[in-house]
Amino acid sequence: MKIRIFRGNSVLEVMREVKRVLGDDALILSVEECRDSQAGKVEILAAMDDGSDFALKDEWTSGRFPSEISFADRAVGKEIRQLRQELEALRRDLNRLYRTSHWEFALSSLVRQGVRKEVIEALVEGIKRGEVLGGTAGIQSGELVLLLLKELIATYVEVLPPIEELRGNPVFFVGPFGTGKTLALARLACVLGAKRREFGVGTLDPVAGKELLASYLEDVEVLELADLEELSRRLDSDREVLWLVDTPSFGLEDESGVGFVKGLLRRFPEGVVYLVLGLDLSREMVERTVRAIGVEGFTGYLFTKLDQGVGYGLIFNEVVLTRKPLSYFSMGKGVKDMEVATPGRIAELLLREDL
């Protein structure tokens, strides 16, 4: 029996090498995520039964095991061979079971998170294209399935750069009533302040925008902008200032409000529009909001109230179906409770259940 360690930058990459070197019948003994980036991000310990007595050699183990273990005693060798045959039969039986159960369990967890059927079907197609179903080495491990699925989910998620690195100006915060867009703006203003990036805060909401922002940002001047023309003049006067602009909340039946939002990127083609949506919204409400604005009407998503939703599938659905990037997540009521969205973080949220 040969045992060897394989390393690489992704599970799929390492599994393909396992299959190339050891064949389809290789047995995966362990899967680990490596902290040492120079050695690769993933390490898989795999074995192949070549009919020889059990031995571990330096070139297979890279020094992690004794250089060689041999069984000179024939009686012991016979028992080992018999045990190996029994283990091989058990491995084949378990492999048939796990090929189905691990993937079904992982994908069913996505269903429980609220991921839509068509999105899961897209993931399954991605799994098939990656040759990780039906005959590829390593499906014996639930841990391996989890890592593969995380990698696959991450490939479907695009993200915007952090706000301090944005090249667009101004940055608009738009969304329906009750999504927390004003608080989201205040949180990102705190981020810019901590990064020592020069910024300005303005509001186009004539009702309570200035008062609400001022209550969140006690040490920041909040300008009440009369209209987009005034904002344009502010931009022309100092291009180094990054403007964060709150906008009036809108209802889906409010044609003028929706039309105003849809026209922002036409008026400011170099700007950025964050569509702020709360995870407490229904799927229908989110989809209607996106349809009303149109994917061309905003730059990316900013999701709030992650602690109030029933599942994180809503986020993944929108990213996959609209192909629009994510920017930030927020939860809680604190001004500093903001998290940069990353593909890996989305995968972690969706697969919080252990396999």
TrEMBL record:
One Pfam short name: SRP54
Span of domain SRP54-type proteins GTP-binding: 168-352
Coiled coil start-end: 73-100
GO biological process, one term: SRP-dependent cotranslational protein targeting to membrane
Keywords: Coiled coil, GTP-binding, Nucleotide-binding
An example Gene Ontology molecular-function term: GTP binding
Name of the protein in its database record: SRP54-type proteins GTP-binding domain-containing protein
Organism, scientific name: Thermosulfidibacter takaii
